[in-house]
Amino acid sequence: MSKTILVTGGAGFIGSAVVRELINNSEHTVINLDKLTYAGNLDSLTSVADSPRYQFEQADITNAEQMDRILADTQPDIIMHLAAESHVDRSIDGPADFIQTNIVGTYTLLEAARKYWSSLKTSDASKAEGFRFHHISTDEVYGDLEGTDDLFTETTPYAPSSPYSASKASSDHLVRAWGRTFGLPVVITNCSNNYGPYHFPEKLIPLMILNALAGKPLPVYGDGQQIRDWLYVEDHARALILVAQKGNLGETYNIGGHNEKANLEVVKTICDLLQEVVPQDANYRDLITFVTDRPGHDHRYAIDASKIEKELGWTPQETFETGLRKTVQWYLDNKPWWQKVQDGTYRGERLGVGG
Ligand code: NAD
């Protein structure tokens, strides 16, 4: 049955993949609620923006009146909550926005959802019965696996290290509490590092691709031996849509691609892929430059995704090798998208003020 799904943060990296997947491969109507911070980019949605099943609402999740109005106007069956401040380095330079959006914003949205859900119980009991609030989070809430072969499971205790992961951990706790205390029908997912098309160029993989193409240094933190578990963003989007509709209420699902790689290995693989598709005399690897490590940098993250695989039958379609190849090719084919991000015009144009 066709539903109305409200996606917060739908102009971001993962949110836009969810919106594209819903418009292209489902019958559902999508409301994209996004503040359009520096990380929000409507250019990532041009392929679906003309669909009659797509609607955009520019709004801030910390604004209770806006949240109440939008929920009342759009009457969603499902809320998929992705809006967040998401960049660890920015959370170290200035944590305030992370506390505001990730914690206060999630609280504000939960309260709006609770009010809306209560009103549904009197106006449309069967819609209230099917209503779901899906909170999207990160494996960084579990902290650091340094020195062990362990994997994060859904019962791993929280031990966040950065202001970003602490704010996400806090939002997870709020969502779980709203489920337990107020009976709000919630489900939570915690996912490993994503990569793929439309990724903002401040993040590791796009930064390395674009710097290498420009002949600029490839800055690697510390010794580059920090291990991340990589997942192709479209595999994550498919997992999220599955959990939003079929995940058991009150449960948490870890999502990951079984792709543990050291950062230095990722950067070297990108260099080798580029050497293959954009050959040059000098080796791209010569651009690798080691820089002072990030304070509090976690050494290793790795996800046990067996629960979502067994209970919901999800498996990733891409390996790291196929996904990375697709990603490198996407950046080569979509220069106008990333050039507008790099020169800032993706922001000016949408505000109508030009470059
Ligand atoms: P992103 O930074 O690319 O996008 C975030 C989006 O939220 C942007 O469009 C931004 O405009 C919007 N936003 C920010 N503050 C807002 C506010 N106050 N009100 C409304 N909208 C606001 O982030 P992403 O990488 O797409 O991550 C999406 C979610 O997935 C986040 O909750 C993040 O914690 C989680 N996550 C990310 C990863 C990853 O590898 N990127 C991995 C696991 C989980």
TrEMBL record:
Class in the EC hierarchy, top level: lyase
Record-linked Pfam families: GDP_Man_Dehyd (PF16363)
Superkingdom classification of source: Bacteria
GO terms assigned for molecular function: dTDP-glucose 4,6-dehydratase activity
Residues annotated as domain NAD(P)-binding: 6-327
GO biological process, one term: nucleotide-sugar metabolic process
Keywords on record: Lyase, NAD
Named cofactor requirement(s): NAD(+)
Catalytic activity: dTDP-alpha-D-glucose = dTDP-4-dehydro-6-deoxy-alpha-D-glucose + H2O
Enzyme Commission number(s) of this protein: 4.2.1.46
InterPro entries: dTDP_Gluc_deHydtase, NAD(P)-bd_dom, NAD(P)-bd_dom_sf, SDR_fam
PANTHER family: DTDP-D-GLUCOSE 4,6-DEHYDRATASE-RELATED
Assigned protein family: Belongs to the NAD(P)-dependent epimerase/dehydratase family. dTDP-glucose dehydratase subfamily.
The protein's name: dTDP-glucose 4,6-dehydratase
Organism: Marinimicrobium koreense
